[in-house]
Write a structure and sequence with these properties.
Blueprint lengths: L15 H6 L2 H4 L4 H21 L4 H17 L7 H15 L6 H12 L6 H4 L3 H21 L10 H10 L5 H14 L4 H4 L2 H15 L20 H15 L72 H12 L7 H5 L17
Helix pairs in contact: 3-4, 3-5, 4-5, 5-6, 5-8, 6-8, 9-10, 9-12, 10-12, 12-13, 13-14
Length: 359
């Protein structure tokens, strides 16, 4: 097993440029578009597999983040997403105190991956086939642990979102559900590797409220974003990226403040933790199966047509301008700098996250 993955001083948060330009998959000839498709594939598998096994959404979300973190340091060309995704869900279930037996995870994953094969259900119940798949998932879990540095501290936007919805007494079911759906949608992107969970919660609530014409509380001495401990500049940055993902026209949004892309690369590790053989949930006699051609059911990138997060009325969300207007109305003290805020948010969490129920 290789050495644990080192992290930067910012914890598990990187700029979009760092994530895209320093991807190990890029060095192996996998372009950004293909890597995005593979990201959607493993997120879909984790979500579907978790739901089939009755795992809570919190466990599923933790598994997705584990998988994102793994591929920060490892290439898709050397580590098949199906095995890694299965291993991430298996491990996340233990971390979130919702354990699922290895036999159940492997059997369900195999049947889902090879659902077009009518013999798959019978094959996976053969002892030699099951044992081989279990050994691959265990290997995948060991690789995961090495690459995330045994860091199981994962924070999610669910808690700050629910707390704000209740505090603001937002009872409109559509707003609550759309904001919740957005939080789930962002899991399929790199936002959780770029922004802290309370930033994502704030952006999700803001867009959901604007879509349904719900005014968030704000006054001379208080603005709603204070509940999320985020500055207007930080909020504007995350919302700009969210609206880009959703496909809103950029011409309706003023230019967001940007930072010069960091030139530092993701920290490198000594050695290579990719498996000695292609780490694939494989069928007997089918070790060279091409994952790119075997991903039926892959979901497209999140866009404005996504059923869980679309803008049903086709309304434009004039995000940046409205945030700016609210800040100006509150006076100069509201525009706290990003640097000042970040001093109080070093690291990536204030402690181990605890499970709780969804809306």
């Amino acid at each position: 097993m290789v050495n644990c993955a080192p992290k930067t001083s910012g914890g598990w948060y990187f700029s979009r440029a760092e994530i895209e330009n320093n991807s190990p998959s890029r060095r192996d000839g996998i372009d950004l578009k293909k890597e995005s498709e593979l990201r959607q594939s493993y997120c879909s598998l984790i979500q579907d597999l978790g739901m089939r096994l009755g795992a809570p959404q919190l466990t599923i979300a933790t598994a997705v983040i584990f998988c994102h973190r793994f591929y920060l340091y490892q290439s898709h060309a050397k580590n098949d997403w199906r095995t890694i995704a299965t291993a991430c869900l298996f491990h996340a279930a233990k971390v979130e105190d919702t354990p699922i037996s290895l036999n159940k995870v492997v059997t369900a994953a195999y049947e889902m991956i090879y659902r077009k094969d009518t013999d798959a259900a019978q094959q996976i119940r053969q002892k030699d086939v099951l044992d081989k798949q279990k050994s691959l998932v265990i290997l995948g879990e060991r690789m995961l642990l090495a690459n995330i540095g045994f860091d199981f501290n994962v924070q999610h936007p669910y808690r700050p979102l629910v707390r704000a919805l209740n505090k603001f007494e937002i009872l409109e079911k559509n707003v609550r559900q759309v904001a919740w759906n957005y939080v789930n949608d962002w899991l399929r992107t790199t936002l959780c590797l770029q922004y802290k969970p309370h930033y994502i919660a704030a952006g999700s609530l803001y867009i959901a409220a604007k879509i349904h014409n719900v005014k968030l509380p704000s006054g001379k001495d208080y603005a709603w974003w204070n509940e999320f401990d985020v500055t207007p500049k930080q909020l504007n940055a995350v919302v700009q990226e969210m609206t880009d993902i959703l496909g809103y026209k950029r011409k309706s949004l003023p230019t967001c403040p940007t930072e010069k892309p960091a030139e530092t690369s993701l920290p490198k590790k000594k050695g290579d933790s990719s498996s000695p053989e292609s780490c694939v949930l494989s069928r007997p006699g089918s070790l060279t199966r091409n994952s790119s051609n075997d991903s039926d059911g892959q979901l497209e990138m999140i866009n404005q047509n996504h059923p869980s997060s679309c803008n049903p009325d086709g309304k434009q969300v004039y995000v940046a301008a409205e945030i700016k207007a609210e800040v100006q109305a509150r006076g100069p003290d509201a525009s706290e700098s990003v640097a000042d805020s970040e001093k109080s948010h070093k690291g990536h969490g204030e402690g181990q996250f605890r499970a709780y129920s969804c809306l």
